[in-house]
Request: fold
Amino acid sequence: MPKVTEQYLAAKKKEIVAAAIRVCAVKPAYEVTLRDVVRECGISTGGIYNYFASVDDIFVEILNQAYAEFPYANALTKIFESGRPAAEIIVEVFRHEGRMVDSMYGRYGKLMKELDVIFANDPERGMRMLSKVTGNRESGDFLTSLRTFIAARIEDGTFSPHVPVSHILLAVIGAASGFRDVAGNHREQVQQGLMLLGLTSSECESAERLMDILARILLKLLN
Reply:
C-alpha cells in the first residue's frame, strides 16, 4: 500500500472543509451534521474520521482558515505602539478593524453568525471549539485595547470627553457590530438602510469606510 503523504492529507482536509462551507451556505451551521459533510464531499463515513473527529472540528478548521486569510496578528499592538498622534492611531485602528470585518464576514458572515448561535445556546460546546482555535483571535482585544488607550490619553490630557467613556464605548460596540452585515449576506439591505440616514453610497460601501466614519465620531466625543 503506498504511503500517504502529508500533502495528500492536507489536500484532503481542504477538500472536506470546502465541502462543509458549501453545506453551510445552504443550511444553518447549527443544523449541519457530519453526515451532511460526508454526502457533500463524497468521502465515506468512516473515512472522514481520519481527518476530523466531529463537525465541530471542521468548524474550528474553518475559523482558523478565516483568521489566516486576514493578517491581523499583532497588528493592533503595532498600531497602538506606533508613536503616531492619538487621533491618527484611533482612525487607523478602526480602519484595520473594518478591513478585518470586510475580509472575514465577506466570505464567512453567515457561518460566523450561526456559530454565534451555537456559542450562545451551548456555551460548553462553544468553549470547546474556541479552545481549539489556533488562528489569530486578537480582534477580540479591540475594545479592551481601545479602552486602555483612551484611558491613558485622558490621563495625559490628550482627550477630555464630556460624557463617560463607558457610554462612548457602548455606542461604538452597537455601531461596529451592525457593520458586520455590510460585508455579509444582507449587504444591500443594510446599505440601503444606511443611505436612508443620509450616508452616500461610497460611505457605506464597506465596513472599513464605516469604521473610518465611526472613528472620527469617536474623536469628536472624546473632544
Q: What stands out?
A: The mean pLDDT is 86.
